[in-house]
Amino acid sequence: MPPRKRTRPGLSFLCCFGSSEPPEINLKDSVPLQLLEFSAPMPPAEELHARFSELVDELDLTGKNREAMFALPVEKKWQIYCSKKKPFPCAV
């Protein structure tokens, strides 16, 4: 038997939906994003700077990016640290 010739190449996956139209995506029922809250208090500035410095070293960033990371406010540094170091008690 000769191979079947496709009439619309690349659209064969739509046959699963029973029509040539893609399914409608409904975003009304989706759960809104929630902000993370950290349970541990932020350490003193010197300790935070030391921890954050270790984290930045691990990331192996270029000079410009390192400067940008260290220029962030301390609250943002703490959020970044907590998001990267999950075993630490600051995770949610």
From TrEMBL:
<dbReference type="InterPro" id="IPR016024">
    <property type="entry name" value="ARM-type_fold"/>
</dbReference>
<dbReference type="Pfam" id="PF06371">
    <property type="entry name" value="Drf_GBD"/>
</dbReference>
<dbReference type="GO" id="GO:2000050">
    <property type="term" value="P:regulation of non-canonical Wnt signaling pathway"/>
</dbReference>
<protein>
    <recommendedName>
        <fullName>Formin GTPase-binding domain-containing protein</fullName>
    </recommendedName>
</protein>
<dbReference type="GO" id="GO:0090263">
    <property type="term" value="P:positive regulation of canonical Wnt signaling pathway"/>
</dbReference>
<dbReference type="GO" id="GO:0031267">
    <property type="term" value="F:small GTPase binding"/>
</dbReference>
<dbReference type="InterPro" id="IPR051425">
    <property type="entry name" value="Formin_Homology"/>
</dbReference>
<feature type="domain" description="Formin GTPase-binding">
    <location>
        <begin position="42"/>
        <end position="86"/>
    </location>
</feature>
<dbReference type="InterPro" id="IPR010473">
    <property type="entry name" value="GTPase-bd"/>
</dbReference>
<dbReference type="GO" id="GO:0030036">
    <property type="term" value="P:actin cytoskeleton organization"/>
</dbReference>
<dbReference type="GO" id="GO:0048715">
    <property type="term" value="P:negative regulation of oligodendrocyte differentiation"/>
</dbReference>
<dbReference type="GO" id="GO:0003779">
    <property type="term" value="F:actin binding"/>
</dbReference>
